[in-house]
Write a structure and sequence with these properties.
globular, 8 strands, 6 helices, alpha/beta, eight-stranded parallel barrel, about 180 residues
Length: about 180
């Protein structure tokens, strides 16, 4: 359900330990670490080296259909260095159920074929979806906002929102969509 004090905050794309510690001290709920090719990609060794935090640590992966987590990422899950996995690729819904830790799916909305994708994940194992803006350049982290008409059809379920959120637009976004999670 909705939290009375607003959404959970996920701060994604962290690459330096001092930023991790500062975000944790500021009360961010989820710390996101990109394990897929990206200008903000970090190594599994970096995550393994981090101190404990109050915030949960989320590894962001981009897998092809049928592909499994690599051994080094699975080891982060097994040792408790990652608390959750965010899938941002073409993963089969079944992988979301076989991890033994929380996981969720990020979907880039582009208006065409979204309904089918959202239904596939929501109806299978993943009622919580992180909606991001589509970009041909990258799976996520582009800083683009989702077009309102692409998001509107999916407001019957919980909304986790990413894509171009910043201090200038966050209050409008919170008012309009009342997301459970915002990903900054």
């Amino acid at each position: 359900g909705k939290r009375p004090d607003g959404p959970l905050v996920k701060y994604c794309g962290l690459t330096r330990e001092e930023d991790v510690l500062e975000a944790d001290a500021l009360g961010v709920n989820l710390l996101g670490f990109i394990l897929a090719p990206s200008k903000r990609q970090v190594s599994p060794e970096f995550i393994a080296s981090l101190p404990a935090t109050k915030a949960l640590k989320v590894g962001v992966v981009v897998l092809a259909s049928g592909e499994a987590l690599t051994q080094d990422i699975a080891a982060l899950v097994d040792t408790g260095k990652l608390d959750a996995i965010q899938f941002h690729g073409q993963e089969d819904a079944a992988i979301l159920d076989n991890l033994g830790i929380p996981s969720f799916k990020a979907l880039s909305l582009k208006g065409d074929g979204d309904d089918e994708k959202v239904r596939y994940y929501r109806d299978s194992l993943c009622p919580r979806l992180l909606f991001d803006a589509f970009s041909p350049e990258a799976a996520g982290g582009t800083g683009k906002r989702i077009q309102a008409e692409f998001l509107k059809p999916f407001t019957d379920g919980p909304i986790w929102l990413a894509g171009g959120l910043n201090p200038e637009n966050i209050s409008e976004v919170l008012q309009q969509w009342q997301p459970e999670v915002v990903d900054l």
